[in-house]
Amino acid sequence: QVQLVESGGGLVQAGGSLRLSCVGSGIIFSINTMAWYRRAPGQQRELVATISWAGSRNYADSVKGRFTISRDNVKNMVSLQMNSLKPEDTAVYYCAAAVGSVAGRQPDYWGQGTQVTVSS
Fold first, then answer.
1. What is the pLDDT averaged over residues 34-51?
2. Taking the mean position of all CA atoms in its chain, how far away is CA 36?
3. Strand partners, 82
4. In the beta sheet, which residues pair with residue 79?
5. Are strands 114-119 and 10-13 parallel, antiparallel or unpaired?
6. Phi, psi of 47 (to 5 degrees)
7. Which range, of 20-24, 100-104, 107-111, averages the lowest pLDDT?
8. How far is the C-alpha of 17 from the C-alpha of 4, rounded, in Å?
9. Which residues neighbour 8 within 8 Å (Cβ) at sequence distance 6 or greater?
10. CA distance linking residue 49 with residue 57, whole number of Å
11. Average of per-residue pLDDT values in the chain
12. Cβ atoms within 10 A of the Cβ of 32, count?
């Protein structure tokens, strides 16, 4: 089993920055894709960013140019640097991990989520 623990959420004003981190433990060597999802109140969960073991990145259109996902395979850590935050970025952010790809499928493992609130 893989366990994921997020940290770094909080309250920030619009235009500000936050950095989310996620540390994994367990059978980490089996993981290819790490990802960040978010769920805003009353909305469906949204895929925010993904990064493969080799470092290939993908972003949702809504965060391109503002968010950066990074990964440290030695420390079993994935981070999400969020800049120029907007009120619509307010959501619970979840770290996720998949043995393969997350394209068209759900991740295999989830973190517990961390709240990000952006005030206008």
1. 96
2. 2
3. 18, 67
4. 21, 70
5. parallel
6. -80, 125
7. 100-104
8. 23
9. 18, 19, 20, 21, 114
10. 7
11. 94
12. 14
